[in-house]
Amino acid sequence: MRHATVRPLTIGRVARRAGVGVETVRFYQRQGLIEEPPRRLTGYREYDEEVVSRLGFIRRAKDLGFTLREIKELLSLRRDPSMPAADVKRRVEAKIADIENKVRSLQEMKRALAKLTSACGGHTTAECPLLHALDQQEE
């Protein structure tokens, strides 16, 4: 019976398997989100499967709006299986509150722009209320 040999993962293979670019892998290494393995005798760094999984975790967390700082915290919780799940829940609830605040802010921007747009009809740009509003300095 033959055992399948596991080919070491180069940074390029890791990036492809995780669906990210090589520069993204390097960036996450600089940010401390993934460890940079030592160089082998070949001169190349060889990564293990866990890095692919970790990169997938990071990508999915980013898709949900988590910042790199927040992702780092989640990864530290993920590393310690004895941590209470309430710690994760608290972070997720904080992210939900942050998203709700951003939604409110975006709705306010939309209302302000709609108001300015409705006032901007048939005028020349010299008389455009939208441009005048943007020119105003707050004091």
Report the strand count.
0
Number of helices: 6
CATH architecture of the largest domain: Orthogonal Bundle
CATH topology of the largest domain: Multidrug-efflux Transporter Regulator, Chain: A, Domain 2
Major beta-sheet overview: none
Work out the strand percent: under 5%
Look at the helices and sheets and give the structural class.
mainly alpha
The level of helicity is 55-70%
Task: Give unreliable regions as ranges.
Answer: none
- Calculate Rg over CA atoms: 24 Å
Order of helices and strands: HHHHHH
CATH class of the largest domain: Mainly Alpha
| Overall average residue pLDDT | 87
* CA(first)-CA(last) distance: 79 Å
Q: How does the overall form come out from the CA principal axes?
A: elongated
Number of domains: 2
SSE diagram, text form:
Layout: H1 11-18, H2 22-30, H3 49-63, H4 68-79, H5 85-118, H6 129-135
Question: What are its keywords?
Answer:
single chain; about 140 residues; mainly alpha; Multidrug-efflux Transporter Regulator, Chain: A, Domain 2; 2 domains; 6 helices; about 60% helix; elongated
